[in-house]
Amino acid sequence: MFAFVLLIGFALIACSTMAVIAFLGDWGLLAKSFRAREKPDGKYFYFQSCGIGMAGYRNMLAVGVTDKGLYLAVFFLFRPMHPPLLIPWSEIKEVHENKFFSWRNYYLSIGYPEWASVTLAENVMNEARQYLGEKVASP
């Protein structure tokens, strides 16, 4: 009986933590407009790290670069309050490159005026560049 109560308690704490992360980051906000109904065809990168607003997701995302937009999905164990997202390329208004020694990441502004943000790794951005064109600005 104690093991069952412990398991339920752990599940509640985990779900609550994921809800807080979704709220503090922009995932919940993005999900209101860009919830993915299906996983479109495209190039996918698994176990990716990404920043969504103020929240960081380390090695727990599938990131897809598709004709329809940028697809983001959290690994299924961490999915509570994090439905998959499909952000259309037209909603990404600006992209800024950040450098730290030899490491680069890219800050994507969502909406105008900006109401959400996504930070992507260089390997994903190299694939997405074809859809973003002139929106990409160097530091």
Describe the protein in words.
- By secondary structure, this protein is an alpha+beta fold.
- It has one domain (2-137): PH-domain like (Roll), CATH 2.30.29.30.
- The chain is built from three helices and eight strands, in the order H-H-E-E-E-E-E-E-E-H-E.
- It has an eight-stranded mixed β-sheet.
- Strand 5 and strand 6 form a beta hairpin.
- The longest helix has 23 residues, at 2-24.
- The radius of gyration is 16 Å and the shape is elongated.
In short:
The protein has 139 residues and is an alpha+beta fold. 30% of the residues lie in helices and 40% in strands. The mean pLDDT is 86.
Q: What are the key terms here?
A:
139 residues; PH-domain like; 8-stranded mixed beta sheet; 3 helices; elongated
Q: Which range does the strand content fall in?
A: 35-45%
| Number of individual domains | 1
How many helices in DSSP terms? 3
Biggest sheet architecture: 8 strands, mixed
Low-confidence stretches: none
Q: Spell the H/E element sequence.
A: HHEEEEEEEHE
First-residue to last-residue Cα separation: 58 Å
Indicate the structural class.
alpha+beta
Count of distinct strands? 8
> Gyration radius, to the nearest Å?
16 Å
The CATH architecture would be Roll
Q: Which range best describes the helical content: under 10%, 10-25%, 25-40%, 40-55%, 55-70% or over 70%? A: 25-40%
Overall form: elongated
* CATH superfamily heading: Pleckstrin-homology domain (PH domain)/Phosphotyrosine-binding domain (PTB)
Strand order of the largest sheet: 4-3-2-1-7-6-5-8
CATH class designation: Mainly Beta
